[in-house]
């Protein structure tokens, strides 16, 4: 790969596949980023040269050669270059099938990975980049196939750093997270979340901070916004007031204000841009 920055993005509204790439790229000089609200899709970032410091979930990791990080959607994080240069590759992805695929592979939480074999992850990303460069109409089916292969390789050849502490936090609240996803349309208080998880509100907050770097309430709001974005794009005929109710907002004005605060644009503008 030459020293030229490469970035390709794909229209999410056109992706009906259960597994799709949202963006993919190569950055010879990675930039510093702070994302207090996280990124709306699954995000893989891997070091090819140099190193960077990555912060999420109250922890800091050094991403040196061969190390990468997989972040779940809306995981608050920041990262910074260490030294004069940090070279990376990345891919962001989504799709209705991603949670079940990752669960099947035993990948349940954001984590730092280290390759057990020479660069199999970055090789797959490079192959996808080359396919995009050769064909601007990069096949969505091909991209889905390559992405699935990438996730298989991540499971087969990836060694998770500090797995026990991160996974233990997530495992404690996984049933609650699944319940929140199923009941997102309902009004849910912190006390109700704590009761479902069978722990005190204070302890629940601590577990969420350790697992995701945010409070349970912030997690629920992000979940509501993510579900709203899915409905806005996949069902453009549904009125905004109905979308608001489907994701747990009791009035349209609160939905619009919260959506604008999180996404920087109104729900209508988001729908217009993606449909």
From TrEMBL:
Organism: Desmospora activa DSM 45169
Domain HTH araC/xylS-type, residue spans: 174-273
Keyword Acyltransferase: no
Keywords: DNA-binding, Transcription, Transcription regulation
GO MF assignments: DNA-binding transcription factor activity; sequence-specific DNA binding
InterPro entries, per the entry: AraC-bd (IPR003313), AraC_XylS_family_regulators (IPR050204), Homeodomain-like_sf (IPR009057), HTH-like (IPR037923), HTH_AraC (IPR018060), Tscrpt_reg_AraC-type_HTH (IPR020449)
Protein's UniProt name: AraC-like protein
SUPFAM superfamilies listed in its UniProt record: Homeodomain-like, Regulatory protein AraC
Keyword DNA-binding tagged: yes
